[in-house]
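DM between two lab members

TW: hey, do you still have the Alpha/beta fold hydrolase entry open?
JB: yeah, one sec
JB: this one, 285 aa:
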Amino acid sequence: MSEASWHHDTIHTNGIKLHYVTQGEGPLMLMLHGFPEFWYSWRHQIPEFARDYKVVALDLRGYNDSDKPEAQSAYVMAEFIKDIKGVIEGLGYDRCVLVGHDWGGAIAWSFAYAYPELIDRLIVLNLPHPAKFAEGLRTPQQLIRSAYIFFFQLPVLPELLIQLNDFQVLEAAFKGMAVDKTTFSDDDIEAYKNAFAKRDTLTATLNYYRNMFEQGLTTSDWGILTVPTLLIWGEADAALGKELTYGTEKYVQDFRIRYIPNCSHWVQQEQPLLVNQLMRDFLDR
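TW: and the structure you got?
JB:
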């Protein structure tokens, strides 16, 4: 399936408009990207899974062509969960395969706890279970890796630095963190820069981090998740240590984890064929 058959559309949910790219027909597979990304992060997965699913790759609120509410309070997990529920129902489905990476993974975990009946399978890439992440933030090694989160709490300064030299920091984040430096072409980097250059995007996306410590992401009590779950983990993640994955089975009843060595945080972009195969193996079991 080619990009020519990808379709751009919007959906109104939870009082805002969300943009998405879709391809294929069948059961719903909903894909949630991370920071600093947009739907484009799933460019290698969309055509693969459109053979069997209606794939919908969202721009999360605040990103790219989705609405960017002005209030900082609009960027909390309760609102993200309402967005996803509204998308599933608004597209005419009563359940989906939910796939999330980075911040999209955090939303996917929380949504699975809130509405397990709406998910057939959960696939999370390089974002630990929230309870394990909370544990990690109490260790020196993860606090060092997560130093950028604390920098993002500052007003204005992060926005100014990210914009410097034509968003040079975005290129540094993608190419600098990747193990395979050919993962991101110049066109890929331009796509990410253009998405972040859109008005109000920077503050909106940083607001996800600015609300982190006020919305229970690091303090909630987590029960046992009953949704069948696959965690895919690039082992050379500079932002999130592999040790954050250890013991996840304590929180997930039907859990499978697959590690990918010599692969960075950008796992589905750096090792797309392997990620796609691991996802297929899990979905076809």
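TW: got it. DSSP finds eleven helices and eight strands in the chain. The two ends are 24 Å apart (CA to CA).
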